[in-house]
Every structure is written in structure tokens, then in C-alpha cells.
Amino acid sequence: MQVTSSIREPLITGGKTVRDVSEDISRQVEGKPTNLWWVAFGISSILLLFGAYCFWILLWDGVGVWGLNKTIGWAWDITNFVWWVGIGHAGTLISAILLLFRQRWRMSINRAAEAMTIFAVICAATFPLAHMGRLWIGPVWSLPLPNTFGSLWVNFNSPLLWDVFAISTYFSVSLLFWYMGLIPDFAVIRDRAVRTGHNVRAAIYNAMSFGWSGGAKAWMRYESVALILAGLSTPLVLSVHTIVSMDFATSVIPGWHATIFPPYFVAGAIFSGFAMVLTLLLITRKLFRLEDYITIYHVELMNIIIIITGSIVGIAYITEFFIAWYGQVPAEQYTFINRAFGPYWWAYASMMTCNVISPQLFWFKKIRTNLVSTFVISIIVNIGMWFERFVIIATSIHRDFLPSSWSMFYPTMYDVGQYIFTFGLFFCAFLLFAKYFPVINMAEVKSILKSTSEKK
Amino acid sequence: MQSNKNFVVGIFDDEDVLLHAVEKIRHSGVRIDEVYSPFPVHGLDDALGYRRTRLPIASFMFGLMGTILALFTQTWMLGYDWPMDIGGKNYASLPPFIPVTFEFTVLCASWGLVITFLIVSNMKPYSWPRSYDIRSTDDKHVMAIDLAHNKMSKDEIGRVLKENGASEVNEKNF
After folding, report:
1. Option in B40, B89, B107 nearest A219 (CB)
2. Burial bucket for residue A18 (CB in 10 Å: 0-12, 13-18, 19+)
3. CB-based contact A215 B36, cutoff 8 Å
4. Which of A145, A165, A194, A223 should we substitute to test contact with B (largest number of B Cβ atoms within 10 Å)?
5. Chain B interface disruption, residue of A1, A17, A18, A189, most B CBs within 10 A
6. Min CA distance, B39 vs chain A (Å)?
7. Band of the pLDDT at A27, cuts 50, 70, 90?
């Protein structure tokens, strides 16, 4: 027998029945897109087109169109790469780590969060691919494939190569996990289409559901697969940002060469990821009227994770400073003083304000249960986390060892354009997902309905 | 048209009623072919007497294969086939090979697992499942009982289903 807790707030409100869940979630897949959806899709497409133009110029003319110079060889591209990869982490945290911890509140939000992960990783991948210059051979040369140079193999000692493996594994395993979750829900839409006589739709969704039957044996295997994938994804997601941080930490550049980087980057990734999940879900919830499934309680729980990870990030910033002083390496000390008080002080100040101070507002229950303040702070956190990466990357290298090499970074239209390209790509993909795929995991929500829904 | 497969189909509205019904129905000597549910019902596999799935073992084997393959490939490429002097470091040493080995292990374990799952569950994009009741993906739990596997008559099975909380009892021929 299922036990209903009288202490915890219900996860699903509005007195929903199992049937209502299929109805509410499938309806938006079956109906025509709303005008609001078209407006959002139109804006995203314009961003994508403008970005695609900038991307094309970049590929045609080369990386020289960016604002990079001899001193600052990495700036917006790697900043955006790390930012997008970090955003992806929340999706896996929600779907895998919260599954292992049996947190049932993940069930309403995991589908959209995982979709966000996948699209964010695709966006992230465009930056290193573009930076390699020749898009058509870069991906081939970064893999250990036989070639006509000997074969000359890739360097397995390099963190950049680890990154190739980490990001591609992360992408493909996240895709698998997400798709496994979608299989039973595609079958729901298939059977509804069969009932209403939409044969083409039924055939498409049947193919996408791999002919899912819903038998007890299939469910038993399915649950086993979900648990193992969660178990595999958990160390995977932690390894991904660890390896991303090693791109910096294994170098000998003051400001990058820090052992604190892996945990610090992982916490920052989850922090920014949850902020992006909130930004997206607050919009999705409104657009598709999912207020009964994604409740204020869900928002509050996510905000609590933002306080925790935001505080970890804050402690990491302070620790870095302390270690720079305590380590007594002049170059390291100079880098950190320059970071806070040098020409990029404004970036550092933005990072501190957005990431350390703003999430602390969530200690007030009124603020963390208010949708407007949550939305605003979630965007502030995303801006802050972008600045964090920019601060780490640009301020550590812009004052080179020789003062004659000192430089500043000024982004060109193509730096900005490439970033806009990924925004267009991300939002177009997310809107298509939200329209044609069930945005909430129906099977999982149905399974908890009896024990944790508000009764009429 | 002559139908060669005759099923009695019991419809259940509630997962807890279903779970108790499965035990009692099996106890009364009826052989249940399969129960189709819109969501996973915990304990149903045990109630139906299914053996635990061996998918975890398959996944472990695929993972192990990935580990060995990744370690062997890296050591062979950088240690034997084309040794490269990178900052005077050892040609082949274990620590820098661990990240790629780990990622490749996860990759093989996950893909191997999911492909095995699709194969053993006989799931293909072009196959349609046999539908005993179209509502089984919506809100009903559907119990399929093959008459050929049972000695009892249709009516007797129907009576047992009703007694144990089935909201409907239908017949289905394929």
C-alpha cells in the first residue's frame, strides 16, 4: 500500500486523476501551436539566422574575425562553451542524482530539464568546433582514427582530448536517458491518436516509442535500465565539468592552475543550470498552463538548491583568494589582485554581486516562493555565471608575464554573433521540443499521483 | 475470420487493487499472461513471479569491455605504435589515461544496456504491440489471460477477476 504523508506538501495540485495527466500533457502535443508559441519561435529563428550569418563569416574568413589577440587567445568562445556545458548539468542532476536519492519532486521537471541539457551541450559544442577553424576536419582529427600521417595518434595526455570524450559521452548518454524516459509517453500519444483516428500521427509516435507495450515485464526491465543509467550518469556528470575545469587547472597559468577547480566548477555548473531550468520552466509552465504540475513547491525546492550551490561557489571564490595569498607566489597574488581591482574590476564585481549576493535573497521564504523574484534572480545568476567564466579566463591571461604583452579583450560582432547563434539554436530546439514532445514525464507523474496529489 | 488466440481481459482502475488481485488470481490457479500498465507498479513483477532481469549484468559486461578496450588502445597507440615525447613524460602511464577510460566505460555500458534492452524486449520502430485494451497507456491496468494456457472456462476466469476487483471483464480475439 502506498503511504500518504500529511506533513509534506502535495507535488501535484488541482485534484488530478490519472486520465487528466494524459489529457493535460498530450493536448499540447496534439493541438496546433498557439500564437504565443509562434511569436517565441519567430524571435528565436531571427536570432538563429543572424547568428548563422556570423558563423558563416567566421568559417569563411577564419577565427581572425573574433576579437582574440596574441595575449588573449581564449575569450568569449571558451567562456560560452563552459557556460553552456555548465547549464546542461542541472538536467542530469535532476534526472539522475535525484532519482538515486528518490526525490519524487524531480518527476514533473526532469523531462524539460534533460531536454535543456541536450540542447545546451549542442550549443556548447559549437564553440570548440568553430575554434578549430575547419569544421569539416576538426571533429575527425580530434578522434583516435587511423590516418595517413603514420598513423599519428591523438595525445591522450591532453585535457582537451579528455574533453572531447567527456562532452561527447555526456551528450550521447544524456540523449539515451532522455529518450528512454520518452518511450512510454510517446506510446500514450500513439494510443490517443489511434483512438481519434489520426493514423499518420499514430505511426510516427509508434515508431518513436519503439512499439512500447507497457507490459509488466517491459516495465521491470525499463526501471532497471533507468536506474543503471542514473547510476552511470551520476559520476559522468561530475566528471564532465571536472574535465572541463582541467582544461584550465592542468595549465601553469596563474589564476588557472588551481586544485580547487573541479569541485568549484561542478558546483557552479549545477548553480547556473538550476537558474536556467527555472528561467525555462517558469515560461513553459505559463505557456502550456502546467501550474498544477510545476507548483510553487517545485520552484521553492529548486531555489533551495540555488542557495546551496551559490554558497559553495561563494566559498570557492573566497578560498581561491585566500590560497593566492597563502601560497606566496607573486604571480598568483598579482593575478588575483588584478582580477578584483584591475581593469576588469567591473566583471569581477558583477560576478560577486550576481553569484554570491543575489541567491542569498532566497533565504526569505517570500522571495523564494515568488515567481517574479525567482525569474529575475534566475536571470541574474545566469549573467553572473557567464561573468565568472569570463573573469577566470580573460583576467588570468590579459596581463601576460611581459608587460609589453599586456592587452585587453574587445569582442567583435562575430564574437557576439556566435553567442547569439547558440541562443537561437537553443530556444528553437526547446520550443520544438515543448510543442511536439510531452514536456512532463506522464508515466512517472501518474505513478506518484495516488500518494502525493492534492485530493479534490 | 477464424481467430486462433482467445483472451480474457480484466480491467483494473487502481494499482493497489491490481497488486492484491494478481496474487489472489494466481493463487486461485489462473495463469496470467501479462499485465499492461500506464506506469510502473512497484511489486508487480514479484507478484507475477517474474525472474529478476539480468540487464545489470549485461551493462556491467559492456562497461568492462569498454574499460579494457580504452586502456589497451591508449597504451598501444602512445606506448607502442607511435611513442611521443610530451614534455619528457612517460610514453604510457596510467593516470592520464583514466579520464578517457572512464568516459569510454560509461559510453559502452549505457549504449550496450539500452540496445540489449530493446533487443530482449523485442522493441522495434516498425513493430506494433498487441493491444488488449487501448486504455492501457492512459489510465487502466489491463490483465491479459490466454484461454489456451488455462484449464478454466471463460466464465469462471471472468468470475475470479470480478471477485478480485476488476472493473470490467472483456474478451479479445486475435
Report:
1. B40
2. buried
3. yes
4. A165
5. A18
6. 5
7. confident
Task: Give the relative orientation of helices A76-92 and A261-287 as an angle to the nearest 10 degrees.
Answer: 70
Q: Which residue of A has its CA nearest to B90?
A: A157
Distance CA A184, CA A214 (A): 7
Residues B59 and B111 reside in one and the same domain: yes
Contacts of A213 in chain B (CB under 8 A): 36, 129-130
CB contact under 8 A, A219 and B41: yes
Structural domains of chain A sorted by starting position, each given as residue range(s) with its CATH number in brackets: 18-142+153-402+410-449 (1.20.1630.10)
A4 confidence band (pLDDT: 50, 70, 90): low
Provide the 10 A C-beta neighbour count for residue A2. Answer: 12
**B71 touching A, CB under 8 A?**
no
E-strand ranges in chain B read 6-12, 34-36, 141-146, 168-173
Mean pLDDT of the A298-308 span:
92
B102 domain-assigned? yes
Tell me whether residues B100 and A161 touch, CB distance under 8 A. Answer: yes
SS3 category, A306 = helix
Determine the distance in angstroms separating the CA of A50 from the nearest CA of chain B, rounded to an integer: 35
Given a cut of 80, is residue A2 above it in pLDDT?
no
- How many residues are recorded in chain A? 456
Interchain CB contact of B38 with A (< 8 Å): yes
B90 and B45 within one domain: no
Please classify residue A112 by burial: count the beta carbons closer than 10 Å to its beta carbon, then call 0-12 exposed, 13-18 middle and 19+ buried: buried
Do B27 and B83 lie in one domain? The reply is: no
Cα A220 from Cα B42, distance rounded (Å) = 9
Percentage of chain A modeled with pLDDT above 70: 98
Tens of pLDDT, residue by residue over A130-168, are: 888 788 887 788 888 888 888 889 989 999 999 999 999
Could you give the CA distance from residue A418 to residue A128 in angstroms, rounded to a whole number? 12
Total domains in chain B come to 2
Is the pLDDT at B79 greater than 50? The verdict is yes
Alpha carbons A453 and B32: distance in angstroms, whole number: 31
Give CA separation, A155 vs A72, A161, B25, B97, B125, in Å. 24, 7, 63, 10, 40
Q: Evaluate if residue A205 carries a pLDDT over 70.
A: yes
Least confident interval from A118-122, A382-386, B127-131:
B127-131
Domain shared by B64 and B112, yes or no: yes
Residues of A whose CB is below 8 A from B36:
213-216
8 Å CB contact of B41 and A447 = yes
Query: Quick count: other Cβ atoms within 10 Å of Cβ B14?
Result: 15
pLDDT tens for A206-250 read 999 999 998 899 999 999 999 999 999 999 999 999 999 999 999
